[in-house]
Amino acid sequence: MQPDLIPGEAADSAEAPAKRWSGWLRYAAMAALSLLLAWPIGYLVARRAAGYDVLANGRTQPVPTDSITELEAAVRENPSEANRIRLSWAYLRDNQAERAVPLLLSILASDKSSADAWNNLCVAHTMEMRYNLAVEDCTQALRIAPTYQLARNNLSWATGELQKNQNAISAQEQVAPSGRDAKFYLDEGLGFLHIGSYHQAILAWQRALQLDPRNALAANNIGVACMFLNQPAQAMTWFQRAISLDPAMQLARNNLAWARDELTKAAASSR
User: Fold this and answer.
1) What is the pTM for the complete model shown?
2) Residue 142: which domain range?
């Protein structure tokens, strides 16, 4: 899994991120296929829409004028990189990051030098509040195209959000143990998730379950972190536990189906 990328730590060589991403792209394409957590109220609706800058000294992407349906038809007829980039931008402008991510990963799987794909992936991951990944995405876009002002702006956005979460985690660490209830650990887990610290997120949600053994949300979220760690078998156990605690939790059922599907794919690919 990706190490946390703290602002200012993007000085490694061009070869290092390429190696890191080549191993991660196939997994991330799987992980991005659905929206995974039972987000608190306002978590999604508060997402910022993708930005759009037109700057004479930087690269820009044209605003898609065709509808998403038309762009999807164009990709089916001709899945060129340009058509997929346009479709991903349309998804982002429509606040559908979860649909843009696998499309962009399909581009990068064959062309890791696409600065537009890296930039759009940065936007998508920022919208999904996976800020550590977003920072890496835009950093890679700028390695490829150093004058890409839109990527630089989006990197600033993602870095700012990452820093906010790191600051929030630092503030939470100051809370006295007597004030740490199940909700505290649910929130702490989300903070760790947003900066890519999946193991620490799991520990926080396990503490929430210790305090509230019937907390289905904590169980579901542990399953999500396991999926991000490419551990679908362990994730299934947690999704099943969430369902046993709350049979009406449709999101956990959706995530269970997703984990089963990934196990089936893994079994088929190993034959």
Assistant:
1) 0.67
2) 15-164
